[in-house]
Amino acid sequence: MTQIPTLTGVVESSDLGRVLVHEHVFVISSHEYVKNYRDDVDEEALITQAVRELTELKAAGIDTIMDPTVWGLGRYIPLTRRVAEQVPINIIAATGLYTYGDVPFPMLHVGPGEMFDQPDPLPELFVRDLTVGIADTGIRAAFLKCAIDTKGLTPGVERVMRAVGQASVRTGAPITVHTDSASRSGLVAQRVLGGEGVDLRKVVIGHSGDTTDLGYLTAVADQGSLLGMDRFGLDAVLPLADRVATIAELVRRGYTEQIVLSHDAFCFADFFPPYEPRTSMPEWNYVYISHKVLPALLEAGVSQADIDTMLVHNPRRYFE
What we know:
By secondary structure, this protein is α/β, with parallel strands linked by helices. It has eleven helices and twelve strands. It has one domain: TIM Barrel (Alpha-Beta Barrel), CATH 3.20.20. It has helices at about 30-35, 45-60, 75-85, 105-110, 120-130, 155-170, 185-195, 215-220, 240-250, 290-300, 305-320, and strands spanning about 5, 10, 20, 25, 65, 90-95, 145, 175-180, 205, 225-230, 260, 270. α2 (about 45-60) crosses α3 (about 75-85), α5 runs parallel beside α6 (about 155-170) and α6 packs across α7 (about 185-195). The mean pLDDT is about 95.
C-alpha cells in the first residue's frame, strides 16, 4: 500500500475505492480575466454547486477523483479545499504545467540558454509541490500533469514534459498527459518521458478515448502506459457508442489492466461562456459514467470484474 495525499488528508491507496482519474473541480485559467470581465462568476455559488455535484457523484458510487488542474489551468487549492471539506469524496491534486505551446511568461526568459541562463526551475517547483506542499496550504500534490496537443512537440511543450519527467523520476510520482489522439501524440509523450527515465507504466495517456484507432491505442498500451478513456459525455468529439465499442474490443484483446475511466468534467471552466456547456452538452457531467456508461459497457460484454479493474485496481496500481 501507498499513502496518497488528498485535499483533506492522507489516505491509503487501498482505500481509494472507485476512482475517476481525470475530473476538474474548477478550471479558472485566468483569474485576471475572471475578476475583471466575468461578472457571472460568484465563488460562493460555485462552491455550493461543486459540493452538490460531488455529493451526487459519491451517491453514484465513486469514492475518489483525481483533479489534474495545474498551472496554466488555474489551480487554486484554497478554493477547491473548501469544496473538499464539505464532500464525502477524496480529491487528489496534481502539479505540473499546462501549455500547448510556450511556457508561461514567468519562465520564458529563465532557464538554460535563456536571458537568465540557469538550470530550469520547473522540476524544483514540481518536486516542492509533491514533497512539501502547494503554496502555504500544506497540501501535497500526488501526481504530475503535462500536455501535448495539435501543435505537437513545441520547444515549450518539450521543456515542460521533460521537467515533469524529471520530477517523476526524482519522487516516484505518476504522470497524466493531455494528448491529442488524432495526431497520435501519446506516442510522442511516451518517447520524451521515456527518454527522461520515466517508468511508462506510471503514465496515463489522457484523452485516449477520443479515438477508435485501435492500432494507435494498442501501440500506446504495449509500451506499458494506461489509456485514459476519460471524456465520456463529450459526444461532440466521439459518441458514446464508439467509446464503449472501443473499450469492449480492447478488453477482448486483453488490455483491461491498462484502461482507466473518467469524464474530464468540471463544475466551472472559464473556457466557456456562462451556462455552457451545461445547456448544450447536458450529459457531460460527473455521474454520466455511473448512470450510462457502466450499463453500456456491461451490455457490450465487459464484465463487472473488468469494470472493477478499470475503476479500482488500475488507479490503485498507478499510485503504488
